[in-house]
Amino acid sequence: MSTYQALPRRYRSARPREAAVARERSVQRRIFAAWGLLYLNTLTYVAGYSVLDLPSKFGKGMAQAALPLAIVLLLTVNPRLRVRPSVFLCLVTALAAETVLTAVQVHHLGTAFRTFRLAEFAFALWLMTPWWGRPDMLLLRCHLRWLYISLGTVALGLLVSPGKAFAYDGRLTGAIWPILPTQIAQYAALAAGLTIVLWLGRRLSGPAAVAGVAFAVAILLLTHTRTALIALAAGVVVAGLSLFTRNARARRFFAGGAAVLLVAAVTVAGVVTSWLARGQSSQGLVSLTGRTSLWSAVLNTPRTGFQEIFGFGLSNAGVNGLPIDSNWLSSYMQEGLFGVVICALMLIFLFGAACFRPSSVHRALALFLVTYCAVAAFTEDAFTGVSTYLLALTVAASLLLARQGRGTTAV
Predict the structure, then answer these.
(1) Is 92 in the same domain as 183?
(2) Are residues 397 and 292 in the same domain?
(3) Which helix H or strand E contains 404, and what residues bound it?
(4) pLDDT tens column, 87-113
(5) Number of independent structural domains in the chain
(6) 101-128 b/e with 16+ CB inside 10 Å = b?
(7) 43, 152, 263, 288: which one has the fewest Cβ atoms less than 10 Å from its Cβ?
(8) Cα(205)–Cα(217) distance, integer angstroms
(9) Residue 36 shares a structural domain with residue 182
């Protein structure tokens, strides 16, 4: 008789449970690490802003190597390549497939590399679908933790080298890893917004929420980024309204927020206006810091019929060395009208899926993420390629996946 059979029945039943718990913890740790690697892959590296002063090729190589490492790690938890049906990821895959068609026509090494990278990224997201729709919101927790870890490195860089941290026109920059102000603002706004919605949904205690939001908002203000602030406000309003009828805390939050805005409009309106202007002239504000001239250049670029529909292929999303800074025009430039339609369908589908879900914290979190990405996409290169915006939309899709018996709805 084996030692296991000789044990009393209660101990025999406890041992498999302990083993299952250990396996689940191991899986969650690997999912968290893989998500962090995907997150690292989306980061840019600009030499000259970091106290570490790594060579540009080495910094970029670290970020690019993170994607295949993430896939290898995900294959250890999903070796049989099991996936769940997902309309959202089908759209992402269609976008990647279209870039392959364009890359074949362009014959450019950089385009081919970026195309392969997008296909790898989509494959990694598919490998995570078995963990979508979990009550514990695993992917959301991974995303939120990595957002705060990134903000922690930014805060550490500010303490270590304030000069490096504000070397980018007086706006807060990553001094440990050279994260640009607009990226930092995105992370801070997403972290603050998700924390607020979790608190509204009673998934987070008050002290923890206050600490997290205060930390994230302070960093956001130091970046002087208007787009992230506007998108944060829009996302919180939409998410809060989705909880309004069934959540007394949400109603009190909106009442308190209205009172604070009224007082701020009377007392500190000048300070707020000065911060939003950021020292720019009225002409600079109207042209969105020169973006509109670049947008005109994108629209006026000569195109063939094929390029009109499928674009010029994935690139650094710039014109004359300057970033386009618009998801829609960037998509039009790189992926043509096909890419613009796919990006629009991503947002429309996620908004539509949220409308058919009952009021819950899952739906509120998803609505915040989708609203934020939709607003920020106007002046940011967002989810047309590999980016943290695409990761955020993936989290939203995972939150909207509802279990129905043994099956699930496709989101």
Answers:
(1) yes
(2) yes
(3) strand 403-404
(4) 999 999 999 999 998 888 877 888 899
(5) 2
(6) ebbeebebeebbebbbbbbbbbbbbbbb
(7) 263
(8) 18
(9) no
